[in-house]
Amino acid sequence: MIWPLEGILVVDFSQFLAGPYASLRLLDMGARVIKVENTEGGDLCRYHYLSDTRIGSDSTLFHAINRGKESVALDLKSAEGLATARALVEQADVVIQNFRPGVIDRLGLGYDAVRALNPDVIYGSVSGYGTAGDWSELPGQDLLAQARSGVMWLSGNADDGPVPVGLPIADISAGANLAMGLLAALFRHARTGVGALVETSLLESLADLQFELLTTFLNNGNRLPKRLASGSAHGYLAAPYGIYATAEGHLALAMSPLGDLGRALGLDALARLSDQAEAGFSHRDEIHAMIAARLLGQTARHWEAELGGKNIWCARVLTWPEMIAAPSFRGLGLVQQIPGAAEAPSQFLRAPFRLDGAAPRVRSAGPVLDADGPAIRSAFRRPLATDPRENDR
Amino acid sequence: MAQPNTNLPLAGLRVLDFAQFLAGPVAALRLSDLGAEVIKIERPEGGDLCRSMVVNNQRLDGDSLAFHTFNRGKKSVAADLKASADLAKVRALVASADVMIHNFRPGVMERIGLGYDDARALNPRLVYGAVSGYGATGPWRDKPGQDLLVQSLSGIAWLNGNAADGPVPTGFAMLDVATAANLVQGILACLVRRGITGAGGLVEVNLMSSAIDMTFEQFTCFLNDGGQQPQRHAIGNANPYQPAPYGLYRASDGYFAFAMTPLATVALLLDAPEIGAFDQSEAYSRKDEVKAIVARICAAKPVQHWLDILEPAGIWCAPVLDWPGFVASEGFAALDPVQTIRTANGSEARTTGCPIRIDGQMLRGSDAGPVLGADTAAVFGTLDVS
Predict the structure, then answer these.
(1) What are the start-end ranges of the H helices in B36-173?
(2) Residues in B touching A27 (Cβ below 8 Å)
(3) Within a 13 Å sphere around the CA of A371, how many CA atoms are in the beta-carbon half?
(4) pLDDT tens for residues A210-235?
(5) Can A285 be counted among the known catalytic residues?
(6) B317 lies within 8 A of chain A by CB
(7) pLDDT tens digits, residue range B315-332?
(8) Where are the beta strands (DSSP E) in A144-299?
């Protein structure tokens, strides 16, 4: 198996999540990723403990995002550190950064400066809100970008306030978009030899994630989606789409013909309503209440078997302990144990794709800060300039 | 039809999109945005089911608006894969393509004779992308690969909302879009490799694996934390694993988001010595107590009052906007993410563009989705079918 990006060198100056997620995907496809970190503790993510889980001394989060990468700690404000960084970008196929707009240019490692050293470099830049306008200087943080994007009014029920997506959806989608742009540019580079500047932002990525609903909104006179009184799962879809409580556990019902569902549940009133076109929209709350009352009579497990057997699209709502106990989940082989890890916590998620039938292996946890510094500093040398910027001119 | 931009990274590539609904077509849409020619292969009776899946009662020239959202800029060929004459033409088309994408349930394409091995025999350089709900094995493999159902099975519905709520799904098809992104990455990586080896490849993704990847930050905590189900915060939950004050707060006239901030700083800025009494090491274990105090204080004054205190101090915070507020904002205007698409009849709709800029250029296209079979004659006419 030849991993597609074998031989590609990625130099990653980014911190936290969006940029490092993009380089993780390139790593999973076979690239070598060198993480350039500051000398005062490195990537801030190392200290960003979620819950109280740690692997070694660094946060679990850091390891999840930076597994398999190499680390070199450089003071980019010192002539020596900058010289090593310049030697690295000179030999890189891909450079990634996520500083706030202007910062990397002041360090002398902006796109133009790097291109002067490495004319066909592919340079990826991820920001919070783009590089122009009032918001460009704002911190590019997931929750704050979610707050500004309108996404918080799509989940939860009618009487709730805003409900954020409880995972870093802006960071991950921006990282995915950056990875796509970088890969497309690598493909063009192989054919034409030209490099590229690839840019995306958290806010653009959130607009893209919502594009199905946002396009509806933009073309319907700006009418907002309406969340249901309970069990809401999509503001524009007709009943029965949603989540329902049962005698034990919850059941999700996706789009299903009302007549079929009415017959499967023994609800004559629902089957009758199905004669009316668009009843799923016009009687949305009424239908929801009718189904909710019926489903309370049995367990979610019962309904999943009963309705699933009649081709109604449904699923039990699982917690994580329930999900990992499911044979189908284990069959996916997503969780991998790092062999011989010194610390007890050593379980990681592999990349979510297979290439030629093979899933990428998780190779190691995240690097200790500067673990690869000595080797990298000796392999990537460049003469010190008296003025570190002078080579830019 | 707009002229193809030959500078785009995927200019000159041909993609066949056999997929319906969402994840597959959205992956093909991204490849189209990046410069590829995308041809949808649709059944002659009705085509992609998405054409008739009308959301919120909106259509454009007879097809659902959602269809145009996912399929703008593509061509359409109508072909009955069960009829031998059509299948022969489609096989010739496969021989001429660089990429093909499908999202049939496991086994269906093999029975038609367009499985990976068949396609590779026709075209060894082909990159073949397959999307499923849950992978090709295991008891879930025949479950419908639908976004809400996968959110429900993958635990995502227990990350949103507050502790006392039931499960709260994310109210849009987040997993379809994430799965599309994973497929595009795999396809592009195989195209890069093809430049070196000359051989195509098989890329397989599924909604369940993409769901787990989207939660990988928190799920890795769960895996290494004794398998304890994360507990959502009592109020303003935005990530069960984050310490106080992370989350949303209701001010007197609206809501705002408060990101990671040391408790001592929160105490100082909100003039709340009772928060200062908590040690930073308690920010996670006693998060609900801390957040209750923050919430009580914030409820008394308007959003702008709090932003004026927090922002100058460098605290990460933001007002919570709805779409009218978002679309009217400076930040939205600066990104300019909306483009207008037109059907062959001249009907127009507004939709968002590709969120990736290449060499400073937005990747724009003004074509709406194709009429079913609009390009059948033109596409098949160029093929040599023996």
Answers:
(1) 65-71, 84-95, 108-112, 116-122, 147-153
(2) none
(3) 14
(4) 999 999 999 988 889 889 988 999 88
(5) no
(6) yes
(7) 999 999 999 999 999 888
(8) 196-201, 242-245, 250-253
